Amino acid sequence: MILGWKVALLNILRNGRRSLITLAAVVFGCTSLIVFGGFVQSMYDGMRESMIRSQLGHIQIYAAGYNQYGKAEPEKYQIPSAKLEQISNVIEKQTQALVVAPRLNFNGLLSDGKQSIAIMGIGVDAEKEVLLSSAIHIVQGEDLFPEDAAAAHLGEGLFNALNAEVGDHLTLLASTQDGAINAVDIQIAGVVTTGVKALDDRLLRVNLPLAQELLYTTDVTRLVVLLEETEMTDMAAEDLGKAFRDQNLNLELKSWWDLAGYYHQVVGLFNGVFGFITVIVLVIVALSISNTMLMAVMERTREIGTIRAMGGTPTQVVGLILLESVFLGIIGSLLGLLAGILAAKGITYAEWMMPRPPGSTQDYPIRVFVVSEILMKTFTLGFLISLISSIYPAVKASRIPVVNALRFT
Amino acid sequence: MLVELSGISKRYKMGDVWVDALKDVSLSLAKGEFLAVKGPSGSGKSTLLNILSALDQCDSGTVHVGGINIGRLGEHQRSKFRNRHIGIVFQSFNLIPVLSALENVMYPLTLRGVKEAKPRALQALRDVGLDQQANQRPTQLSGGQMQRVAIARAIVTQPDIVLADEPTANLDSKTSEHIMTLIQKLNKEQGVTFVISTHDDYVTGLASRVITILDGELVKDSQTNISPLDRHNRVDITELEVKV
């Protein structure tokens, strides 16, 4: 059968221009899939890490029942300060956590004396949040420092709505855990953006002691854990859950995966778009290959007749033509992978900027990841589509009556 | 008998007209014969060879080659039959251009999965005097050399019968002589059975037997020296004499 392989391979070189057109179609398809897939993957990755490092952390730990009932009665589902050290010890023992940071969430009103705006407040441990919220960018002003008791960060949208200046003093009102109204003075230390406009329009970050003073509590709403790598999340969550149960700590936890509803919606949407584009690309490639293979078969009708006359069966003729496609598919897919990788690296290196997406506050540079899974899928698809789109020409060639094939000029 | 054709008929439709390519042709052929099929263009020579080589099927009648009724074979079986029992030499050589002379000759054997294809192909090339050109591509060979390769390819499988459809039509007279001398040699020395269609008198002069086909009918057979039509006529005359 080595001779059959040789015939198939040499036939590819026989009409170089046509083979190049076929190869170009496969290379184009593979490159498109690698670049678009890598771009989408970089978007997923960027969005995921941005959410993790600005809001969610990798794992969040709450008092048991918080996620079910906490919105109605938050004061009943807080983590007591007395337990924080024990919980932190368990987390540090069970996971390779970079940071375990407490947060106290509250809703309130921020007033400059002329107007009051509803805010979504978070009391944070300023030192730990530097690492945990590294994706929150300071647009104006400076970081939060623990020693600046009244310092606050305002989301960019909130800051603009108040028409304030960095250093201005404002009044923050909220309900204490007992239901009383309390107020504290804050000073704008900086203006921040999370990249999510809806959040930036309402975000207020203050030092945890100030938030606890405002709500008249020593408890916290949650502990946010940042791991070394996002891939560690599932295992860490499993270990932590088991350790909490073993130590009778009445807690519940959620991973970023559970909390990132927006992320899942975007991923779902883009997966659908990617799937649709993949189908379109594959159809274009398949039509191109099928067309060139039909031309190749037509030109070699007489040769196919000769092979049949020598005793080649219809199956052997189909096999010969499919073998050519297999070679074209392998060569085209390998070249496609190379072209795709080069294109991905080139686009990333060029650092072209994409306009900000809906709901976002920042432009972002185009990054195209080279993902081994996408490369493997692309190679397989390139190879398979070459093979599948040659089935019709191959079967057609095998069905030409031998006498007609031999007469073909 | 190696070949037995009995009452073969074949019709083609050309446009809206039906053409009788062969009409009730019967023929027997013994092993080792060198049969020339003579007749003008369109007389049915090629159709006869196509049916004999299982490339085409007849509308009526039976064809036995080596005891096999090839009319009953399916498409796949007919391919296998051709590979094992028939060698074909084409007017235009029909060599595969991407393969060397040796590989062209090996091809029918590899279709069958023969492992010693190379030594057998080399021997076949030696038989036709082309072993020195074994590694040359068809484009590097002359017309006569290409036809020799085609003959080597036809005999390499040691078929029961080699069919050649006007094998010298595309060659000059000198080269034609060389090719026909080679065919005659293979026939005499190796006992290869040849059926050659031609309208070249030189070719028919070398054949051990010549049949003539005209308008799809076998009108003359040199073996019996009496045409089937003559035989019909004689019967008619006898009948007439009896009546008189």
TrEMBL record, chain A:
Residues 19-241 form the MacB-like periplasmic core domain. It is a multi-pass membrane protein. Residues 276-401 form the ABC3 transporter permease C-terminal domain. InterPro entries: ABC3_permease_C, Lipoprotein-release_system, MacB_PCD. Signal peptide: none annotated. It is found in: Cell membrane. The keyword Transmembrane applies. It comes from the Bacteria. The chain crosses the membrane at residues 20-44, 273-297, 317-344, 364-389. Pfam families: FtsX, MacB_PCD. Its main location: membrane. Keywords: Cell membrane, Membrane, Transmembrane, Transmembrane helix. Belongs to the ABC-4 integral membrane protein family. LolC/E subfamily. This is ABC transporter permease. It comes from Microbulbifer echini.
UniProtKB/TrEMBL annotation, chain B:
PROSITE patterns: ABC_TRANSPORTER_1, ABC_TRANSPORTER_2. Keywords: ATP-binding, Nucleotide-binding, Transport. The keyword Transport applies. InterPro entries: AAA+_ATPase (IPR003593), ABC_transporter-like_ATP-bd (IPR003439), ABC_transporter-like_CS (IPR017871), ABC_transpr_LolD-like (IPR015854), MacB-like_ATP-bd (IPR017911), P-loop_NTPase (IPR027417). SMART domains: AAA (SM00382). Pfam families: ABC_tran. This is ABC transporter ATP-binding protein. GO terms for molecular function: ATP binding. Residues 3-240 form the ABC transporter domain. It comes from the Bacteria.
